[in-house]
Design a protein that fits this description.
This protein has a single domain, classed as Jelly Rolls, CATH 2.60.120. It is about 5% helix and about 50% strand. It contains two helices and 20 strands. The strands form three sheets. Strands 1, 13, 14, 15, 16, 17, 18, 19 and 20 form a nine-stranded mixed beta sheet that branches. Strands 2-3-4-11-6-9-12 form a seven-stranded antiparallel beta sheet, with no helix packed on it. It has a four-stranded antiparallel beta sheet with strand order 5-10-7-8, with no helix packed on it. It is globular, with a radius of gyration of 18 Å. This is Pirin-like protein.
Length: about 250
């Protein structure tokens, strides 16, 4: 049944939740991956991306395994480690191992190749790899990484990525800001969305309430209407909040 225009508008601006178990799933043996948005062999026309956010892959990689050297271009790619150690190498000459609290940003620009491997032979690595569509094509590739301590994120939303690298955040080639927060027990924080902006919330682990709505690990929320976003009643929760341009799908608008 076709919705009336007013009903379509009401549904469009509501807080829209994608539950964790509704994500795509890939089991490659050494890699178990959940895809928030269409990726690889998973395609869902309702889950192509949101604003400039194109990929959120929730990856668990067995010890000693990983992604061999492969190319990217014209994409802002960042990794957020939740457990274990992730070893990075790229054709810009960068090589490091990042652990929980570390954030890695690679701007592929005109082209770069990299590999990502579990830094341990025995322990699993659990991380998020997130892609953001850039606002410029063919830029010079660049790389950065930074540690944001648990104390820095405890009971608050810490800016970790921004266009200008404000407050010690990593720079991204897009009008996007990303915040990370840890919430447990009585810890709480509120983010007031700027006017004419969208937001996306991803629960990386644990449980938390967003404006009174319970969310669990892997849940994602599209928010299209400017409002105060209140995080509370967490249980060992870690969340990412994306402050985005008001577009439905990724692209160079």
């Amino acid at each position: 049944m076709e919705l009336a225009p007013s009903a379509r508008l009401e549904r469009r601006i509501a807080m829209q939740i994608t539950q964790a178990n509704d994500r795509g799933y890939a089991n490659h043996g050494w890699l178990k991956s959940r895809h928030t948005f269409s990726f690889g062999g998973y395609y869902n026309p309702e889950q192509i991306g949101f604003s400039d956010l194109r990929v959120i892959n929730d990856d668990r990689v067995d010890g000693g395994e990983g992604f061999g050297t492969h190319p990217h271009r014209d994409m802002e790619i960042f990794s957020y480690v939740l457990e274990g150690a992730l070893a990075h190498r790229d054709t810009m000459g960068n090589g490091s191992t990042i652990r929980p609290g570390d954030v890695q940003m690679m701007s592929a620009g005109s082209g770069v190749a990299h590999s990502e491997f579990n830094g341990s032979r025995d322990e699993l690595v659990h991380f998020l790899q997130i892609w953001i569509v850039p606002n410029v094509r063919g830029a010079t590739p660049r790389y950065g990484e930074r540690n944001f301590s648990a104390d820095d994120k405890r009971g608050r939303l810490r800016l970790i990525i921004s266009p200008e690298g404000n407050e010690g955040s990593l720079e991204v080639r897009q009008d996007v800001k990303v915040y990370a927060g840890l919430f447990d027990g009585a810890e709480a924080a509120t983010f007031t969305m700027p006017e004419n902006r969208y937001a996306y919330v991803h629960v990386a682990r644990g449980e938390v309430e967003l404006n009174g709505q319970k969310l669990v690990e892997g849940d994602g929320v599209r928010i299209r209407e400017s409002q105060a976003l209140s995080f509370a009643n967490g249980r060992d929760s870690e969340v990412l909040l994306f402050d985005l341009r008001p577009y439905e799908l990724p692209g160079l608008q």
